[in-house]
């Protein structure tokens, strides 16, 4: 019999800039998250509709490829998963309200901010006994 691996929390990164998307993904992977990366809100919404149960953190830019903005995605994500931690980022001032519980980070933010949030989320999940064998 093989050993089962501990279940890892998933983070959804939605960013149309490939370098930013990769950097955020690497930072989250360092904090022991499995990362699902999308360049459009439409692709991210499909993830949330499909296997979104396992996604505990989503980080999205406001400006994305496709027709939907990161703000619209934040509202959709909270509809599917009200307990999902959502971070919306932009280099421009935010002109729309975010859904309740979503955070806004103005660019440029520090990579350490991503690690700090990921570590806090991982700690919160482990205290709830969320990590389980699959």
Automatic annotation (TrEMBL):
Q: Which Pfam families match?
A: Response_reg
Q: Where is the Response regulatory domain?
A: 10-122
**4-aspartylphosphate PTM positions:** 61
Ranges in a coiled coil: none
Q: Which PROSITE patterns match?
A: RESPONSE_REGULATORY
Keywords for this entry? Phosphoprotein
> SUPFAM superfamilies annotated for this entry?
CheY-like
Decide whether keyword Phosphoprotein is in the record. yes
Q: Does the keyword Phosphoprotein apply?
A: yes
Under SMART domains, the record lists: REC
PANTHER family from the UniProt entry = STRESS RESPONSE REGULATOR PROTEIN 1 (PTHR44591), TWO-COMPONENT RESPONSE REGULATOR (PTHR44591:SF21)
Designated name of the protein: Response regulator
Specify the taxonomic lineage.
Bacteria, Pseudomonadati, Pseudomonadota, Alphaproteobacteria, Hyphomicrobiales
